[in-house]
Amino acid sequence: MHKELDDFFEDVITVRLTPERDGLDIIDQTLLPGIRKRICLRTKEEIWNAIRELKVRGAPAIGVAAAYGMAVTADHIQAEDFSAFYHALVEIKNYLASSRPTAVNLFWALNRMEQRALAEKEKSLDTVKAALFEEADRIREEDVAISRNIGELGFGLLKKLKKEGEPIGILTHCNAGTLATAKYGTATAPMYLALEHGWEGTDMHVYCDETRPLLQGARLTAYELCHAGITTTLQCDNMASVLMKSGKIHIVFTGCDRVAINGDSANKIGTNQVAILARHYGIPFYICAPSSTIDKSCPDGDHIPIEQRSPDEVTQMWYKERMAPEGVDVFNPAFDVTDHDLITGIITEKGVCHAPFAEDFARLKI
Length: 366
Ligand code: MRU
Fold this sequence. Notes:
The protein is α/β, with parallel strands linked by helices. It folds into two domains: about 5-140, translation initiation factor eif-2b, domain 1 (Four Helix Bundle (Hemerythrin (Met), subunit A), Up-down Bundle); about 150-365, 3-Layer(aba) Sandwich (Rossmann fold). The protein contains twelve helices and 13 strands. Strand 5, helix 8 (about 215-225) and strand 6 (about 230-235) form a beta-alpha-beta unit. Helix 3 runs antiparallel to helix 6 (about 125-160), helix 4 runs antiparallel to helix 5 and helix 5 (about 105-120) runs antiparallel to helix 6. The longest helix is centred in the middle third of the chain and has 37 residues, at about 125-160. 5-S-methyl-1-O-phosphono-5-thio-D-ribulose (MRU) binds near residues 59, 103, 174 and 257.
């Protein structure tokens, strides 16, 4: 990848430890794209709030933040023995788990941290604490490798669909980019890998849905892709059908927050309508997801908890003045579920899964 893009990735790293390893150093995504500011989180309350307020967001990045959050805050636990330490650790885990309900990576990462502590329980508490830092580092490093694999597989699909001399049109929703992960993103990974494999930014034309109400597409995806030199167009969510009808979109890539075992996939609100449109216009619709996003305990989309957020995000946020009457009832779910039969494939790091998804997940040992 070219140096400028690598430098950009370095500048916007979502989550890392402070050099003293006593806190989380995150880029505050609520300030992007106007202000690129890193902030430090030390207490469990600061970490909880940063996740809740979307200062750090996107399923894999939330998992990494929670893992480091557990390591950093567990380091301060004063306990006589493992049993007392473990009790305090589980309290931290349960508290961080209550920050957001939908992205399963949060619970997956927290469980992995708990399991690591249990695996070390015969050792000294200092060793257990050090192991928690090691596990969080590992979760972060694995995420880079996982999204790279997703990118390779997605790039394979782009190569098949691309016509000589024409940019391939890709539509994406929300931000499943570098800002949502530890490096390549999931939905953006095929684009970044395309650059690594020698494509020019003009070989692709990425259409970013603005993504109401929190504008992750406009503020974050368009920001990253413009930095990468990829031809990028931003449209409001209700403009996607016009683009699809005109033949400009050849493939859709989105991320996701939780996949049920039958393939139903929860992602940012509005994803389901993109999938319905894609089906109508005969455009392949792919979900890009690390296998940690597949929740084997969840039979179908009806069992995925959907986060409801504040009405203010719809009525007044981003506006100079309130744009809806006081007291109006507001519907503001943060996610929706795309039915599995609308999904062409789910690209995981282990392979591309097709319907019946449960069989493919089993085949790939997910
Ligand atoms: O509310 P957000 O911004 O955390 O929602 C993010 C998404 O919906 C992403 O598409 C998803 O987490 C996948 S990120 C690789």
